[in-house]
């Protein structure tokens, strides 16, 4: 429940009429967060599907497609980690990079 009030800032807080009660509003909010893992090697370009779902509060992460769909507008925070296996005998120059897209539009990368 959220209480709505009107405050008349031309008055001091202790003055009569400074605050007028309007109503209570029943506000429903829900958390959205997830923690997924890939338990096997992945060697392809494209969206990364995941093998393990530790948390998926709000159900916004699709494990099979690897796509997170925001259920409501707002700011979201993403954190990513990974490891690359590089053979000691390798002479290749290897990079590790994960791109981030919003509605199929590139917005940044991790790596």
From TrEMBL:
SUPFAM superfamilies: TNF-like. Its main location: secreted. The keyword Cytoplasm does not apply. It holds the Pfam family C1q. Keywords: Secreted, Signal. Residues 27-111 form the C1q domain. Transmembrane segments: none annotated. InterPro entries: C1q_dom (IPR001073), Cerebellin_Synaptic_Org (IPR050822), Tumour_necrosis_fac-like_dom (IPR008983). One of its GO terms (cellular component) is extracellular space. It comes from the Eukaryota. It is found in: Secreted. PANTHER family: CEREBELLIN-RELATED, CVP18. This is C1q domain-containing protein.
């Amino acid at each position: 429940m959220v209480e709505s009030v009107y405050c008349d800032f031309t008055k001091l807080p202790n003055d009569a009429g400074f605050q007028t009660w309007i109503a209570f509003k029943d506000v429903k909010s829900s958390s959205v967060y997830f923690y997924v893992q890939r338990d096997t090697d992945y060697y392809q370009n494209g969206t990364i599907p995941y093998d393990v779902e530790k948390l998926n509060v709000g159900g916004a992460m699709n494990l099979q497609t690897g796509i997170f769909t925001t259920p409501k507008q707002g700011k979201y925070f993403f954190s990513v980690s990974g490891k690359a296996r590089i053979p000691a005998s390798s002479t290749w120059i290897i990079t590790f990079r994960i791109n981030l897209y919003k509605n199929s539009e590139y917005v940044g990368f991790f790596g």
